[in-house]
User: Which sequence fits this backbone?
C-alpha cells in the first residue's frame, strides 16, 4: 500500500495488476492505496489500472485441491465447466469473465 501510494505521489499513474497476483492481495492493496490517495486529493481519472482476465483468483493462498476449488466456486454456481478450464488455471468464457468483473 505504501509503495503504490508513494509511486502515485511521485508522479506515476499506471498500475498493473491481476487477480492471481499474490492471490488477490495485490488488488486488495491497490484498493487500499487508492482510498489513501483519494483522501489526499488524487482523482480516479488520474490513475490508469490495467489487469488481466481469465485467471483463477485464489484467495490469499493456493487451495490444496484446485479442482475442488474450481468446482465449488465456479462449476456448482453455473459460471464455468471443467471443459472451459485451460492449463488448470485459466478460463475465458463470457460468464467466467463477467463473474471476475463483478467480483
Assistant:
Amino acid at each position: 500500500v505504501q509503495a503504490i501510494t508513494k509511486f502515485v505521489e511521485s508522479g506515476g499513474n499506471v498500475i498493473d495488476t491481476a487477480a492471481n497476483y499474490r492471490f488477490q492481495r495485490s488488488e486488495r492493496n491497490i484498493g487500499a492505496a487508492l482510498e489513501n490517495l483519494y483522501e489526499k486529493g488524487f482523482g480516479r481519472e488520474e490513475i490508469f489500472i490495467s489487469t488481466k482476465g481469465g485467471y483463477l483468483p485464489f484467495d490469499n493462498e493456493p487451495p490444496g485441491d484446485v479442482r475442488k476449488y474450481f468446482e465449488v466456486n465456479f462449476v456448482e454456481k453455473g459460471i464455468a465447466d471443467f471443459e472451459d478450464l485451460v492449463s488448470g488455471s485459466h478460463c475465458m468464457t463470457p460468464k467466467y469473465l463477467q463473474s471476475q468483473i463483478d467480483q
